[in-house]
Amino acid sequence: MGRYGPFPAAAGDGGGCLPPPIVAAEGALAVVDGAIATAAFVQLARIHRHNHIQGWTRQKIFHFMIGLSNIVFLVYFVSTIIATCQRWIFWVHGCGFVLMASPQILLLASFLLLLSFWVDLCHQTNDEDEEDIRSHREALLDRAKTKPGIPPVNIRQRCCPGIQLGSRQKFVILVFVLLFIVMFAFAILIWVGKGENPIDSSLLKRVYLDVFSVVVLVLGGALACYGALLFSKMSKVRSETVSTEKRKVASLAAVSLICFLSSAILALVTNVPVLLYWYSTDADIIYNAVILFVYYFLGSSVPSGFVLWIMRDLPHRQVVERPTESRVVTLFRERPSTTQDPQWRTAVTSSNKALKSSPI
């Protein structure tokens, strides 16, 4: 029979530590995630130094979230090796689960945020009128609430300048908070399950992993679908800039689909990420080590590194506009145009919007 327990059996020179193949897999993952986190925060510092006027832009938020998630992954892998050798009981019964699930939620929220921006671009023409009406109403309400002579105070803009949250981005924040609440609820149940009660901690871990894998699977499919839709819309615009952004969208959608689909299926089939100590032979140890490395490498390291590579370009530096002399230019037409094709007007508007807002 295979073995499952809070710690591996003490045998040979390894004592109560993890087998060398699993230690090697987690050590390699720690090195990779540490390199990605370092690259993310170094690039974030360069972007902020290059253009600090705009505050927290979309590019800065992605670099921060990816860097933070990979740092937590690094701490998790190193702590797993140490906690197993030191036999930390609290690590298996709750704390290790929290440290394992937290960076996955952070990474999931990053790609949910990317999906929300793509959805905004795909439905931009439909939501434009509603957004204008909503902005007009908010402006009227702010004007009515503001007393004469006292400037309005926007706490969010003062604390986090540059961030513009739409309805879909607020929904992503809500999902992010709910995922953390669910994760902590599972952690509490796993902690309670260590005592003499009918709660099975290993079963709870498998249920959480299965549910999370299904969410990741749906996210990968949604990114692929909206990436293809956005690619088709951008293909109608003739521009060198749009062609570059179009290639970025296509490659990011493809990588997200392949990586998330592979890691989710791997987790659903094997459950190795939460059943790390299930082995009886050397073949089982090597199998678990390979599955563990592939799961985290495809599920987090490759998407994180690819997003950083896609967003590697520094933004345009903002310059202070100087007032220029006004000039009157008169344009003459041979014949005034009385009508315009609505489809032509829509195409021009869509082209301008696509050029104005980058999907990455």
Automatic annotation (TrEMBL):
Residues 28-135, 175-320 form the THH1/TOM1/TOM3 domain. Pfam families: THH1_TOM1-3_dom (PF06454). It is found in: Vacuole membrane. GO terms for cellular component: vacuolar membrane. It is a multi-pass membrane protein. InterPro entries: THH1/TOM1/TOM3, THH1/TOM1/TOM3_dom. PANTHER family: OS01G0751300 PROTEIN, TOBAMOVIRUS MULTIPLICATION PROTEIN 1-LIKE ISOFORM X1. This is THH1/TOM1/TOM3 domain-containing protein.
